[in-house]
Each structure stands twice: as C-alpha cells, then as structure tokens.
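Figure 3 (text version): structure tokens given as input.
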C-alpha cells in the first residue's frame, strides 16, 4: 500500500461492506453454498452426478458452483446438504455482543477460518 492511500477495514461480512439489504442472510447462503461446493468437489462428482443427487438439473448445479445464488433459498441449500448426507444443526442462543445486532452464523469444519486484513478503498 502506498503512503497516504486510504483503506477500509472490513466488517467481516463483505455483503455488509457492500450495503447489501440483507447482509447476514447473504453471507449465510454464501457459506452454505461454499460447503456444498466443497463436498461435491471432494466427492469428485461431475455436475450431472451432483444434479442427480440434489434433485435438480445440471444448469442449477453450475449456478450453485459458480456462486450465482439467486433462486436458492437458505432452506433449499439446507436440503441439498441433507441430500449430500450431511446433518444441519440450527442453534439458537442469546446474542453475544450487547449493543450489536443479532447475527446468523454458518459454522462448518469445511469453511476456512476468516482472516482479518485491511482492504484499500477504490
């Protein structure tokens, strides 16, 4: 980074940083899709094989694997995980940070730990 260059410290949610209208939900969907994609890739399945297992057509699998998540509800992504023989556990607890909004979290050993870093403003 050049001297005098401005930067923006991420909130930890790219969708919030981009002023998405529902950032928590968008991040949760992205994480669910990431886990589904990781499972499919680890199984070495073709898109056609994945489509068969998920009960959708191949173009829907292509959209999912490429992060195009319009048309995929959180509930549908959860059903996909069940179709891939993965349990989904929903845990409800009091919020952790007083004074902050409550959050939605997706936790999986398949999701790499987030790294915190500064990103230059554009």
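Below: residues designed for each position.
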């Amino acid at each position: 980074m050049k001297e005098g260059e401005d930067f923006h410290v991420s909130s930890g949610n790219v969708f919030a940083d981009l002023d998405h209208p529902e950032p928590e939900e968008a991040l949760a969907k992205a994480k669910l899709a990431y886990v589904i994609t990781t499972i499919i890739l680890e199984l070495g399945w073709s898109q056609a094989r994945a489509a068969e297992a998920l009960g959708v057509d191949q173009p829907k699998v292509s959209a999912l694997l490429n992060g195009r998540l319009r048309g995929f509800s959180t509930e549908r992504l959860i059903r996909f995980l069940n179709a891939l023989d993965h349990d989904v556990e929903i845990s409800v607890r009091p919020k952790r940070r007083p004074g902050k909004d409550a959050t939605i979290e997706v936790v999986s050993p398949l999701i790499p730990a987030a790294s915190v870093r500064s990103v230059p403003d554009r």
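The longest strand covers residues 7-9.
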